[in-house]
What we know:
The chain is built from 15 helices and 2 strands. The protein is an all-alpha fold. It has a two-stranded antiparallel sheet with strand order 1-2. The radius of gyration is 28 Å and the shape is flat.
Amino acid sequence: xxxxxxxxxxxxxxxxxxxxxxxxxxxxxxxxxxxxxxxxxxxxxxxxxxxxxxxxxxxxxxxxxxxxxxxxxxxxxxxxxxxxxxxxxxxxxxxxxxxxxxxxxxxxxxxxxxxxxxxxxxxxxxxxxxxxxxxxxxxxxxxxxxxxxxxxxxxxxxxxxxxxxxxxxxxxxxxxxxxxxxxxxxxxxxxxxxxxxxxxxxxxxxxxxxxxxxxxxxxxxxxxxxxxxxxxxxxxxxxxxxxxxxxxxxxxxxxxxxxxxxxxxxxxxxxxxxxxxxxxxxxxxxxxxxxxxxxxxxxxxxxx
Length: 304
């Protein structure tokens, strides 16, 4: 294991980026654990405030990203400082992207439905950093110098055609995770660029605007993929990020269990032997004929 780490990570010069990825994942896990404890009122943690101003953890994250980036640009390629720069950058990136939705909406949507964008941002960032480790190798010796001017022209041109352009098309089609995987293998870029775009992506809005059949086909394919990945996405959203399920995601069984009094007759318990108290039949008949069941009753009788 040590030999593999030395040959794959250390010798090619990938260790600073590897440390950034480790720091990113560790900071993200620790941050989410602390915020969930604060939300539940458990543990010794609490929100950080300066007077009446609540300081979000994106603030130290921005500072860490700036310090780590400036350090990486200023220090030599080898030594302790470049590794420290990678750690600082990973910590700062995790703190910032954990509140990515708040930056996008410019309001506190951390635990709201809009806050799920932060989960997507963190997942994509981990994929980008993980794939980049297998691509970059700063300390590998360069290839033999090419004197042919055609090679100098055709090389970058083929790189753009075979990698950059299909990756950009994949991004425009809304397939950000596929585009991140394309950093590791261009095959993913070609797959993402060839397949239908997501219905709400910039590519779909531009190309499918006057083609309702193609837009409907893209929507059907998107819904089919979402059904396949729903278990993994639910685990990522609810178990890892700690989001709460919305009311429309509550199962009918939970709705029935949450409203036994409405089903069994409200506040007046039934008398032993199954006979209701005096006047209960009249009240029940009036309720059945004039009122539409709501809340738990609606869940039981209509399944809505």
